[in-house]
Amino acid sequence: MNTRKTRAVILAATLPLVIALAGCTGAAVGGDPSASSSGAPIRVALLTDQSGPYAEFAAQQAAGVKFAADEANANGGIDGHPVEIYQADSLGTAEGAVSAAQKLVQQNGAQFIIGTIASPTTLAVMQRLDSWGALQFGTQSQGVDLTGASCEANFFRVFTNDDQIINAMGAWLDEREPVLDWDAIGADYSFGRQSVAGLEQIVDGQGGTVEVSVFAPLGSTDFGSYISQLNGGGGLLVANSGGDSINFFKQALQFGTLEKYGLVFGNASFTTSSLNAVNDARLVGAYGSANWQNTVDTPESKAFVEAYEGANGEAPADFTGAGYMGMQALFAGVREAGSADPDAVRDALSGLTFDSIKGEVTMRAEDHQLQAPLYIAQVEEGDDGGLVFNVVDTVPADQNDHGPSPECTL
Predict the structure, then answer these.
(1) Average pLDDT in the 396-407 region?
(2) N or C: which end of the chain has fewer CB within 10 A?
């Protein structure tokens, strides 16, 4: 393992960030157009779903990306390189994301791409990276193939993948009384199906079974026909997120479905957004996985939460942290490379160990999947009467990741 280290946590007062929005006149203040030159700008294409089931997640990510850029620019940039953010609507589709990214790369000179959410959308952009000469940072897509069979040298996943989440869940379940009969509901694409397949492996290893598995299309508003198939038992896995998880939980609570299970576990289902939207005390006691939460107990995380809250008047949400971490990885690569040139950053970041809001992490060279702790959190009642997702256990990288996929050849 490469143990080169760089310090990427910057916590300082913020400055307004000059942002060039795609489709608007004008451009962000720039430096030398040669990215390898001292003081040349770090141009970032921020792709956001401005509508659809993931719009709230996209807004949270954007807040984290922009806050990281504000901090960097307040300190004179990253090794003297100012950070510019160019934002565009991905339309929540693969075609929309590719079109938006291409425009920002070609017209605005963006060298680094961040923000896509659904794995198929991220994959569509990944497949164009080499022709654009750009790097992409995966800050939310969990599909295993992105750092497996479909891996690309110019793609770095800072977020967790589905296998890591299931491994973390398995490690956590091994510490508890076995739950041998499960039902599962997931989104009907790679995220949901891989999550349920992973659960089946865990339960089979413990001598149990997943008795019912149902999958709802992304963007579903009526979960009634799926909920009616969930008959109750020891455990229920929910692998829906965004607006889908909100719709599912509201309807499942109406039917009394969750009360039929001894354990409810959400994969990316319990978030700041979903808990605020549902806000039903009957969710208290449910567990789930978390890539990061503002209750993570590390000095770096606490410092980030304090700085963000001081600047914005509220704590950062789940995926605000994800966007921020994506920028931490980019900045670490720029520092290590001594350059904002994408090729140099790619080579420097591969195998690099650096500090983050999750503590010390490593970008694995073999597949560009971040090696980092994951968290198990529980729904609790907050001091203000709302619901919070409080971290109750940390699963270190060596327990949540079992090695790179042999299908990835970088």
Answers:
(1) 95
(2) N
Q: Are 15 and 70 in contact (CB under 8 A)?
A: yes
Q: What is the mean pLDDT of residues 380-407?
A: 93
First to last CA, the chain: 16
Query: Is the confidence at residue 14, as pLDDT, over 70?
Result: no
Note the pLDDT of residue 38.
63
pLDDT value of residue 72:
98
**Which of 78, 143, 122, 169 lies closest to 354, judged by CA?**
78
Q: Are strands 359-363 and 353-356 parallel, antiparallel or unpaired?
A: antiparallel
Q: How far apart are CA 263 and CA 234, in angstroms?
A: 6
Q: Whole-angstrom Cα distance, residue 92 to residue 228? A: 29
At 92, is the secondary structure helix, strand, or coil? coil
271 in Cβ contact with 317 (< 8 Å): yes
Neighbours of 71 (CB within 10 A): 25
Give the tens place of pLDDT for each residue, 184-241. Answer: 999 998 889 989 999 999 999 999 999 999 999 989 999 999 999 999 999 999 999 8
Strands 287-290 and 353-356: unpaired
What is the DSSP-derived secondary structure letter of residue 17? P
Show Cβ contacts of residue 174 under 8 Å, excluding neighbours closer than 6 positions. Answer: none
By three-state DSSP, how is residue 76 classified? coil
Give CA–CA dist 144/161, Å, rounded: 6
